[in-house]
Amino acid sequence: MSLISTLIGTLLFAIIAPAVGCLLAGLDRIVSARMQGRVGPPLLQPYYDVRKLFEKERVAVNSVERVYVAAALLFALLAGGIFFSGGNFLLCVFVITLSSLFFIMAAYSTRSPYAEVGAARETLQVMCYEPMVLLMAVAFFQATGSFDVAAVLGMPHPIVCSIGLVFLGVLFILTIKLRKSPFDLALSHHAHQELVRGVTTEMSGPTLGMVEIMHWCENVLFMGWIALFFVWGSPVSALVAIIAVVIVYFLEVWIDNNFARVKWQFMFKSAWIVALVAGGVNIALLAFL
């Protein structure tokens, strides 16, 4: 039954997440433009861009590149299906990490020096945020007694009350996972910050379109992680979770438009310090108190 629910969740996520992620990307562009004193593009501009990419000719430096990108998208959809069907959160973390690894392999397969630099930076970003994500899974288990996402529905209060420090740590690394400045070292969505587009330099047409859809799905999944902190066994929690997600996403857009890119050394040190302090202290408190 668990496998069936996961497959159904993955199918529904594959249908709904790209649409929601597209709207989030469009809203991101509009809010960013308003912050910069511009009108901005229409809400559905990301959809128009991706549709145009799929209408272009299939051109690739290496044919295996498209296979790696397709695998990355598939595992991103599977991770979303596991999470939103109430499955094992730790498995969701491992699957979305596997998606990132296939994306990195796609960049390396092109043998382009620019793409390889982007892939190296992408690998570094995974090394930065992964400890905090794993500590989040451990803290979630300590707070609920299970790795199953559905366990939060049996809680008398939101788990943010028990793992508030972990939530702050996740907020910090969320900027890296959403590819927002100041931590958008591998791939920037702002043209003024890139002469060549990092990890996707050699990707074009439908391949690049799949990358954009993958990013939309990842954004929806990560917002689901934020909502997880504010859900408990009450119908009101759904509204609270939605409000929290809106606030957090607006905060990430604000950070993206107000902070310049930092060096990788600062990103690495700060992410690990936050993971050790926020995650480590919170887990210790749950273990010994």
Automatic annotation (TrEMBL):
Sorted alphabetically, the keyword list is: Membrane, Transmembrane, Transmembrane helix
Concerning InterPro entries, the annotation shows: ComplexI_Subunit1 (IPR052561), NADH_UbQ_OxRdtase_su1/FPO (IPR001694)
Write down the superkingdom of origin.
Bacteria
Topology class, membrane: Multi-pass membrane protein
Main subcellular location: membrane
Transmembrane intervals: 6-27, 67-84, 90-110, 131-151, 157-176, 220-251, 271-288
* Localization of this protein: Membrane
Q: Does the keyword Transmembrane apply?
A: yes
Could you confirm whether the keyword Transmembrane helix appears in this record? yes
This protein's name: Complex I subunit 1 family protein
Q: Which organism is it from?
A: Adlercreutzia shanghongiae
